[in-house]
Amino acid sequence: MRKISKLHFITTSAALAEQACRGGVDWIQLRLKNVSYEEYRKVALEVQDVCKRYNATLIINDLPRLALDINADGVHLGKEDIMTPEEEAALLAGGHIIGCTTNTLEDILHFKNKPVSYLGLGPFRHTTTKQNLSPILGLGGYKNIMESLRTSSQKLPPVIAIGGIILYDIPSLFETGIHGIALSGAIGNASDISAKAAEFTKLVNDPTASNDPWGNSDAQTRDIIAGGIGEIIGNITFN
Ligand SMILES: Cc1ncc(COP(=O)(O)OP(=O)(O)O)c(N)n1
Ligand SMILES: Cc1nc(C(=O)O)sc1CCOP(=O)(O)O
Ligand SMILES: [Mg+2]
């Protein structure tokens, strides 16, 4: 099975996936809502072509059947998503990745000894990318959950933080012990998607920045804060 990346870019098109991969992203989750199976399949094949060219992992959101149909690398499933026992068996037999959504420590512990490759844990903060959000965790929520996981010393899948994450959040989030982050808006809404993807790729893979939120040089710190404020303003929608 492929290594679970520290940066998952969630997107809706091959064009966005390609720009992100050009900036160094190596994990794409295709997430389409309210489209027919055929439309989802068409876009998935286009994104798969991009992923193959950049050697990036392709995860299909919601539909195990589609992941099997096009032989994607894996599938992401939330609590409401349905996977038949036959689909699960076929995905596992094919060595496919299965990711699942969690919001609480109890949700995570439920996956003990289950054949799940990673767990999305969120939302970190409010986001308009997803409707019907679970309760917001904030940094405190991640600290508490990750600390409980450490003390319980149970063997559990790696945790991927998700929900409204911007560049500025990375050092403190990684300090809680998460394996990686998943995001859509902070890269997909950037004016230069490849450049923003490159910034995220660098920061998630920089262990010093990951361990010490203020360990950057002053200039870097200013850039991160300015970038974060820019992203927050960029994410505000005016009615
Ligand atoms: C990495 C990751 N974590 C969580 C989710 C959310 O999945 P789900 O709860 O099924 O919600 P939708 O994305 O389907 O709206 C995710 N997609 N990826
Ligand atoms: C798809 C998704 N799932 C979430 C969860 O909490 O389970 S939050 C979310 C949206 C992620 O996109 P953005 O980075 O734009 O907020
Ligand atoms: Mg889902």
Characterize the structure shown.
- Helix 4 links the parallel strand 4 and strand 5.
- 45% of the residues lie in helices and 15% in strands.
- The protein is globular.
- About 6% of the residues have low confidence.
- It has a single domain, classed as TIM Barrel (Alpha-Beta Barrel), CATH 3.20.20.
- The N and C termini lie far apart (45 Å).
- The relative contact order is 0.14.
- The chain is α/β, with parallel strands linked by helices.
- The site of the ligand Cc1nc(C(=O)O)sc1CCOP(=O)(O)O has 18 residues, from helix 8.
- Ligand LCLJCK34 binds next to strand 5 and strand 7.
Short précis:
Residues 12-187 form the Thiamine phosphate synthase/TenI domain. Condenses 4-methyl-5-(beta-hydroxyethyl)thiazole monophosphate (THZ-P) and 2-methyl-4-amino-5-hydroxymethyl pyrimidine pyrophosphate (HMP-PP) to form thiamine monophosphate (TMP). By secondary structure, this protein is an alpha/beta fold.
Oligomeric grouping of the chains: single chain
Averaged pLDDT, please? 90
Main beta sheet: 8 strands, parallel, barrel
CATH architectural designation: Alpha-Beta Barrel
Rg, please? 17 Å
Shape: globular
Secondary-structure content class = alpha/beta
Pathway: Cofactor biosynthesis; thiamine diphosphate biosynthesis; thiamine phosphate from 4-amino-2-methyl-5-diphosphomethylpyrimidine and 4-methyl-5-(2-phosphoethyl)-thiazole: step 1/1
Function: Condenses 4-methyl-5-(beta-hydroxyethyl)thiazole monophosphate (THZ-P) and 2-methyl-4-amino-5-hydroxymethyl pyrimidine pyrophosphate (HMP-PP) to form thiamine monophosphate (TMP).
EC number: 2.5.1.3
InterPro entries: Aldolase_TIM (IPR013785), ThiamineP_synth_sf (IPR036206), ThiamineP_synth_TenI (IPR022998), TMP_synthase (IPR034291)
